[in-house]
Amino acid sequence: MPSARILIVEDERQTVDTLRDLFEQHGYETEVALNKQVALTILQERKMDLLILSTTVQENLGIEILQEIRKMSPSLPAIMISDQKSKRVESSSAKAGANIFIVKPFDDELILHTVENLLESRFDIPVSKKTKTYPKGKK
C-alpha cells in the first residue's frame, strides 16, 4: 500500500519542521501549506489522506480554513492543533469539522498514534507497523 499523504496547514516554521520530520521518518508523505489559498490549491490538485491544521494560521483563521476545506473534502480526517487550551477554541474546531483537537506542545507518540487511528478507521486497515500499536479502546 502506498504511504498515506498528510497535508499540514501551519504557519509556524518550527511546528512545520517538527511535524514533517516526524511523519516522513515514519513513512508518510507530507505537503505543507502556509495559508488558506495554498491549502485549497493542494487539495484541488492532489489526493490527501489526512489534514493537520493549526488554529493560528493567518491570525486565527484556522477554523475558517477548515470550514472551507470541509466544503471540498467533507470526509477528510482532520486534526486541529492549537497553542490555546480553551473550551471555546476546541468547541469551534469540532463544529468546523475537526475529528481531534490537540494542544501544543504535543507529544510525538500521541500525534503518531492519533494519525494512525484516524487513517486506520478511514481505510479499515493498518497503515504502519513502525510505531507502537495499542489494543482497541486503549490510548
From TrEMBL:
<dbReference type="Pfam" id="PF00072">
    <property type="entry name" value="Response_reg"/>
</dbReference>
<feature type="domain" description="Response regulatory">
    <location>
        <begin position="5"/>
        <end position="119"/>
    </location>
</feature>
<dbReference type="InterPro" id="IPR011006">
    <property type="entry name" value="CheY-like_superfamily"/>
</dbReference>
<dbReference type="InterPro" id="IPR001789">
    <property type="entry name" value="Sig_transdc_resp-reg_receiver"/>
</dbReference>
<protein>
    <submittedName>
        <fullName>Putative transcriptional regulator</fullName>
    </submittedName>
</protein>
<dbReference type="InterPro" id="IPR050595">
    <property type="entry name" value="Bact_response_regulator"/>
</dbReference>
<keyword id="KW-0597">Phosphoprotein</keyword>
<dbReference type="GO" id="GO:0000160">
    <property type="term" value="P:phosphorelay signal transduction system"/>
</dbReference>
